[in-house]
Amino acid sequence: MLRVAEIFTSLQGESTWAGYPCFFVRLTGCNLHCVYCDTPQAREAGRRMDIAEVVAAFEKSPVKMAEITGGEPLLQDGFVALAEALLTAGATPLLVETNGSRPLERIPAGARAIVDVKCPESGSANSFLEANWARLRAQDEVKFVLSSRADYEWARTQVQEHALVDRLQAVLFSPVHGRLPGPILAAWILEDALRVRLQLQLHRILALP
Ligand code: SF4
To answer: Domain 2-205 falls in which CATH fold?
Structure first.
């Protein structure tokens, strides 16, 4: 049994898959308290659903790209069974958005993790599980959501120390909407010739769910 905050279809907003129509399953519950959280309703709201009910909704949808998000989806016992059921039902690709505070090995091999590593000014500093750096796989993406120059410099250090650019599908630097102007972040990336991708929060720009 799962606790599901909502199921909806929208454009994927925050990865290299941004812009594609996507079937979202937002699981209830989160263990962090980010200052810029845009899904506080996912902390406690929602209803209990069987995995079969979620898969039935996916099978009715014409959209075959799927994402399990939250909240923090890895907190739920039923997460692995849900991910495997969506893969079996034809989710292509299946994305899993996680804050990286729980072991990533629970994410099935056929899924792609979008790991949101929390920066010092996120309100959830030091939440990333150190052992997870070694658990990242070639198909995974890491995202740093940045509020300031201090966050940028911290993220740049993580990228270099853990050789993320060479190991992963993508490394994304995203400015917090309303806190760090995109053009300033763009200038810093260019100045350092950092091989990361600037990512704007598409769903916020377009005011999508
Ligand atoms: S991890 Fe995500 S859902 Fe949880 S508080 Fe942070 S932004 Fe919100």
So the answer is: TIM Barrel (3.20.20)
